[in-house]
Structure formats: structure tokens, C-alpha cells
Write a structure and sequence with these properties.
mainly beta; Immunoglobulin-like; 19 strands
Length: 258
């Protein structure tokens, strides 16, 4: 925001006028990391801030201080229109990333006007991501009970949960929790438990669930947490000097980006 001051001479007495000027960037940007199993994708969204229509193209994404390779999934020759009612979406697949924090610079060419009034400029946007490595893969399937061909509403089915460690991490137990939609599923057995996962070995858990309605239902959500077991007074002294600690759950970082 700027103030423009004008001095107007009215005879021998100057008159001062202040005019408020507000300048806004042509776009606002946001980014997001998408995951498909262990594959990672970076999405950048460009949203216009004015009714003025801009033509954008030749988008690029550069990773700094990291060996990650970025494979563009948009056509480099594609031109997109951006204004307050229409956004532009750009997507890259991130390959060979080692899990360390990465700083990115997104840039795109944009233009407005036509003929002799055509203006071309470059817009850039910096951001950083961390904690993006996939540590565990969870595979869930629901099968009808033995002797049945289909899963039916109000009939008990078997839910199989497979947990596989994909990347090295600190050694700890995992707590799994089945979190169903109470409108569509009911868990008929224990919905949580503690497992120990070995590298590249799938740990399978089977429990009973019951669909409450008919149709193609989304599977219940399986949530993982780090499980820190309790310690007896004789095993290791705790920080408060009591020598005993209770078991606790620690959530995994969902990843961060700035």
C-alpha cells in the first residue's frame, strides 16, 4: 500500500492531497504433496487475484540442494488462462528424493494485453517440504465370510489389513486403529492392536466387520501411530525420577510445507 501526495498551488497557498494506492500481485500460489503408495507428486496451483485475464505457460519447478529429479506431467507448450474464476494446476512427479528437506522454486511466464500493448513477465514462488517420505504402506481388503459369495448388509465379513515397512526408520512398535464410518460399517471384533513390523515384510491382521448399508462402500480407515510401551521401575529410570513410565501413542508427522 502506497500514499501518493499531490501538491496543488491555489494562489499563494499550496493544497496537499493524499491518494491511497494499493498494489496486489497478479496471482496467489499454493502447493501440495500427493502420494500414491511410495510415489510422490508436487502440485502447484495458480489462482488469479483480479478480473484481468492472464495467459500463463512454460512453467518450471527447480529443486535446490537436493538430488530429486522432477518429471513434469503438464505439457510445456500448453497455455492456460488465469483469472479470479479460473485457476491453473501444474503437477510434477518427484523421483529419487532421499527424504531430506527440499526447497523449491516454481516459475511461470505470464502475459496480458495484445499487439503493441502486450506485456510479458515472470512470476516465481518459493516453498519448502519435509517429512514427505512414505514409511509404511497399508493395504486393506474386505472379503465375505466363508461360504458366502458376496458381502451383504448386516452380515459379518473379514477385513484383512496388511502393513509393510517401505523405508528405514527408528525401531518402534505400531498401534493400528480401524476408524469406520459409523453409518456404513461396524467393527465386530477388536478395532485396535499393537504390531511389530520387520523391514520389507508384510504384517497381516484380520478382524471382523459388518457393512450396515448396501452399495459400493468406501473401506474403513486404518490409522497408524508409534507405540511406546510402558517401562517397569527396574528397567530404566524415567525423567521424573520415579523409574516407571506408562505406554503412550505418538502420531506420525503428516509432513510439512512452507
Amino acid at each position: 500500500e502506497y500514499t501518493l501526495t499531490l501538491s496543488l498551488s491555489n494562489g499563494n497557498t499550496p493544497v496537499m492531497h493524499g491518494i491511497q494506492l494499493l498494489f496486489t500481485p497478479p496471482f496467489t500460489s499454493s502447493h501440495r504433496v500427493h502420494t500414491s503408495h511410495a510415489r510422490k507428486y508436487i502440485q502447484v496451483v495458480l489462482q488469479g487475484l483480479s478480473l484481468q485475464e492472464f495467459i500463463v505457460g512454460n512453467a518450471s519447478l527447480v529443486a535446490h540442494e537436493n538430488t530429486a529429479f522432477l518429471k513434469p506431467l503438464n505439457s510445456t507448450s500448453q497455455l492456460l488462462r488465469v483469472n479470479t474464476e479460473q485457476s491453473a494446476y501444474f503437477l510434477w512427479e518427484m523421483l529419487d528424493a532421499n527424504g531430506d528437506p527440499i526447497r523449491f522454486t516454481f516459475s511461470v511466464l505470464y502475459s496480458f494485453g495484445s499487439g503493441e500493448d502486450l506485456v510479458e513477465k515472470t512470476y516465481s514462488y518459493d516453498f519448502r517440504i519435509e517429512n514427505y517420505k512414505t514409511l509404511y504402506a497399508v493395504r486393506v481388503r474386505v472379503e465375505p465370510a466363508k461360504g458366502s459369495e458376496f458381502c451383504r448388509a448386516e452380515c459379518v465379513c473379514n477385513m484383512h489389513i496388511g502393513i509393510t515397512q517401505l523405508n528405514q526408520s527408528d525401531k518402534y512398535s505400531l498401534m493400528y486403529e480401524v476408524v469406520p464410518d459409523p453409518v456404513t460399517w461396524a467393527v465386530c471384533s477388536r478395532s485396535a492392536g499393537v504390531v511389530n513390523i520387520s523391514q520389507e515384510q508384510e504384517h497381516t491382521v484380520t478382524l471382523e466387520v459388518k457393512p450396515l448399508i448396501r452399495g459400493f462402500l468406501p473401506l474403513p480407515t486404518v490409522r497408524l501411530s508409534k507405540y511406546i510401551p510402558s517401562q517397569s521401575p527396574g528397567s530404566r529410570s524415567s525423567s521424573d525420577g520415579s523409574g516407571a513410565t506408562s505406554a503412550k501413542l505418538v502420531t506420525f508427522s503428516p509432513g510439512a510445507s512452507v
